[in-house]
Design goal:
Layout: E1 7-10, H1 16-27, E2 31-36, H2 45-48, H3 53-56, E3 57-61, H4 67-74, E4 79-82, H5 97-118, E5 123-127, H6 153-158, H7 162-179, E6 184-190, E7 192-194, H8 204-212, E8 218-221, E9 223-228, H9 229-241, E10 247-251, E11 254-257, H10 258-268, E12 277-280, H11 290-294, H12 302-315
Parallel strand pairs: 1-2, 1-4, 2-3, 4-5, 5-6, 6-10, 7-9, 8-12
Antiparallel strand pairs: 9-11
Helix pairs in contact: 1-9, 4-5, 5-7, 10-12
Bound molecules: NADP nicotinamide-adenine-dinucleotide phosphate (NAP).
NADP nicotinamide-adenine-dinucleotide phosphate binds next to helix 1, helix 5 and strand 7.
Length: 320
């Protein structure tokens, strides 16, 4: 799909996932149009330090709810990677779910889709989440979850799980619209994304891991599904470059309980202030990324993801 030096657009360029994706695109000689909300802000300084950024990276000021700004950013691109979305750290801190989460995710995605159709983009890669897969109470307990499972929007609403609701509505709407247009859409549903940070700000999933190093008294011994941000960036490019890619793909590498994750970290970094107690949580869900692996995706060992994460937080002074 990608000719030499094809242009692609990445929305939410300053974020955790998008930064790695842009870096990988640049290393593969793509021209990148990255959207950011406040060009000139120090939070985007890392982007211009990427190799080949001076020649091949252009920042566009765009907000997801401002159609014209998005339209300018996607012009001339063969691929659009829609990564931007609000990622709240907890539902409790959201005062107005419609304004803070749902609208930027759902209306914002419609804007990026519409702009992509108008600009005659060839493939639209949407970053969804397992949040759009796993909130499905009617899924049989003994069955591994795959891409046929959709989170139940009514269930998300009644449990006030606004992030899951936003990702489900945005992804569902994206795939629906694709059916009636010439735009080729592929969506990737990552689990909890960890790995080294390139950006100077702290994103929600990295914060989750940082908290485990910073003196929580007690945590739930939950089953976690994790994927490395570098492997996710590879998956997104695979979804763009492989002509046979279609529909949605779960992107998750490892299933690990919180206590085992903490034990793994302790073996390498014994001096952090780890949780003292773990309370057991009831969870039986299993997920499969087989479809993505059949497309050629592979992933690194969980140790590399976790150790490299902590090293990067330390280097960035985020643990002081
Ligand atoms: N991290 C995970 O564990 C995880 C797991 C599954 C799926 N995902 C998905 O991956 C994507 C990236 O997540 P991330 O972890 O990289 O989060 P992040 O670092 O918080 O990045 C989110 C980006 O979205 C942008 N954004 C939010 N609202 C916007 C708006 N109204 N207009 C323009 N940009 C807006 C933010 O821009 P500013 O920089 O201007 O704030 C930021 O760059 C999201 O779609 C998320 O749902 C993440």
């Amino acid at each position: 799909m990608a000719g030499e030096k094809a242009s692609v657009c990445v929305t939410g360029g300053g974020g955790f996932v998008a930064s790695w994706l842009i870096n990988l695109h640049l290393s593969k000689n793509y021209f990148v149009h990255a959207t950011v909300r406040r060009p000139g802000d120090a939070k985007y300084a890392h982007l211009s330090a990427f190799e080949k950024a001076s020649e091949n990276l252009r920042l566009f000021k765009a907000d997801l709810l401002d159609y014209d700004s998005i339209r300018s950013a996607v012009e001339g691109c063969v691929g659009v990677f829609h990564v931007a979305s609000p990622v709240p750290s907890s539902s409790d801190t959201i005062l107005n779910p419609q304004v803070e989460v749902i609208e930027p995710a759902v209306k914002g995605t419609q804007n990026v889709l519409k702009a992509s159709v108008e600009a005659k983009v060839q493939r639209f890669v949407f970053v969804s989440s397992i949040a759009a897969v796993i909130m499905n109470p009617s899924w049989p307990k003994d069955q591994v979850m795959d891409e046929t499972s959709w989170s139940d929007t009514e269930y998300c609403r009644t449990t006030k799980n606004w992030y899951c609701l936003s990702k489900t509505e945005a992804e569902c709407g994206t795939l629906e619209l694709a059916k009636g247009s010439k735009l080729d859409v592929v969506s990737i549903c990552p689990s909890l994304v960890l790995g080294p940070v390139l950006q100077s700000t702290v994103n929600t999933s990295s914060l989750f891991l940082m908290r485990l190093l910073k003196g929580l008294e007690s945590v739930e011994n939950r089953l976690l599904w994790i994927v490395d941000v570098r492997d996710l960036a590879e998956a997104l490019i695979l979804a763009f470059e492989k002509p046979e890619a279609e529909g949605r793909y779960i992107c998750s590498a490892h299933m690990i309980k919180t206590e085992s994750l903490v034990d793994m970290l302790k073996s390498k970094y014994p001096h952090y202030n780890y949780p003292k107690n773990f309370t057991e949580a009831q969870q039986e869900l299993r997920l499969s990324s087989e479809k993505l692996q059949r497309l050629g995706w592979s992933y690194q060992p969980s140790k590399d993801t976790l150790f490299d994460s902590v090293q990067s937080y330390h280097q960035a002074g985020l643990l002081d």
